[in-house]
Write a structure and sequence with these properties.
With about 300 residues, the protein is α+β, with helices and mostly antiparallel strands. It contains ten helices and eight strands. The protein has helices at about 10-20, 25-45, 50-55, 60-75, 90-100, 105-120, 125-130, 145-150, 215-220, 255-265; strands at about 165-170, 170-175, 195-200, 205-210, 230-235, 240-245, 285-290, 295-300. Strand 7 (about 285-290) and strand 8 form a beta hairpin. Helix 1 runs antiparallel to helix 2. The two termini are about 35 Å apart. Mean pLDDT is about 75; it is low at about 20-55 and about 280-305.
């Protein structure tokens, strides 16, 4: 089954939109790519790239389908209008936000690269799920089973309330339960759990335990923009450490400074808090292949966050 487009220009726009990643070389150029994304999105109304797009009620109008797709893609920039310093998801994780299943963006990137090199005329997700690439299995980089299993939980407005933090006498407290934030809980096999935070554009702090491949920084705001993001440690509500590490948002030093200012204004004592950004990191690289078969190397600090 081939996707149906209103015109040939719509088909070209849908493909060009998903290949917009290939044009960046540096972070400065990447910013230009992000601007192109929104321009193309406005003019082409992003083609909904999933099996569900093609399997819904056949009587649904093309206008309705485009509206659904645009709403889903727009979440990547949600919150930017509230604060110009907010960070959108890093480029490779746009795929994750657009995907209705929210498969992990780091994994999707390997298949995206394969799709680019194939020069297929089918939109990426159609190619991946039911088109020419449905049998592709990149076992050495990311198996098809791993791709399908690692889906990131995107919280709704009511769900994220369980992770919302308030401040009482400089201590971090969960708003719903009144429990003091304590990150000392052990993870699987006795390892230390990793706890992550995101500060929304409305200055609301969310904290939760990271679960690689299922709950990460993008989970809190459902892929929306954030003022700051990173790792956090606390004991009985007392902040012990915070680091600006997030592969999804890639916060800048300015973002982290804004986060520290946010804490100070709420009475948090930072005098004994570890803020050293040299904490142990996981480093991986992601390759995106351009149409000219040149490899563009995108270094991603802690891409699993």
């Amino acid at each position: 089954m081939e996707p149906i487009y209103d015109s040939e220009s719509d088909q070209d726009a849908a493909i060009n939109l998903q290949k917009v990643y290939k044009s960046f070389r540096t972070r400065k150029v990447a910013d230009c790519v992000e601007q192109r994304w929104w321009k193309v999105l406005d003019s082409a109304k992003l083609k909904h790239s999933s099996v569900s797009f093609f399997e819904l009620d056949e009587h649904e109008s093309a206008v309705s389908k485009w509206a659904r797709a645009r709403t889903r893609a727009a979440k990547v920039g949600k919150g930017l209008s509230k604060n110009g310093a907010a960070r959108k998801l890093a480029l490779q994780h746009w795929l994750e936000a657009i995907d209705p299943r929210h498969r992990y963006g780091h994994n999707l990137a390997f298949y995206y690269d394969k799709w680019l090199s194939s020069e297929s005329k089918q939109p990426f997700f159609y190619w991946l799920d039911i088109g020419e690439g449905k049998e592709v299995n990149l076992i050495e980089k990311c198996s098809r089973s791993k791709l399908q299993q690692q889906c990131i939980k995107y919280l709704g407005p009511m769900e994220r309330k369980a992770y919302e933090i308030k401040f009482e006498n400089g201590r971090l407290v969960y708003s719903e339960t009144g429990e003091l934030l304590d990150t000392a809980e052990e993870g699987e096999k006795g390892s230390k759990s990793k706890w992550i935070f995101v500060l929304s554009t409305t200055n609301t702090l969310f904290v939760g335990k990271k679960k690689k491949g299922s709950f990460q920084h993008s989970s809190f705001l459902a892929g929306g923009a954030a003022l700051a993001a990173g790792r956090i440690l606390a004991e009985n509500g007392v902040l012990k450490a915070a680091w600006p590490h997030s592969g999804h948002y890639r916060p800048t030093p300015e973002n982290f400074n804004d986060f520290l200012s946010f804490l100070l204004k709420r009475g948090v004592d930072l005098s004994d808090v570890k803020l050293d950004a040299s904490v142990e990191e996981e480093e991986e690289t992601v390759h995106f292949r351009s149409s000219s078969s040149e490899d563009i190397l995108l270094s991603d600090s802690d891409p699993s966050s």
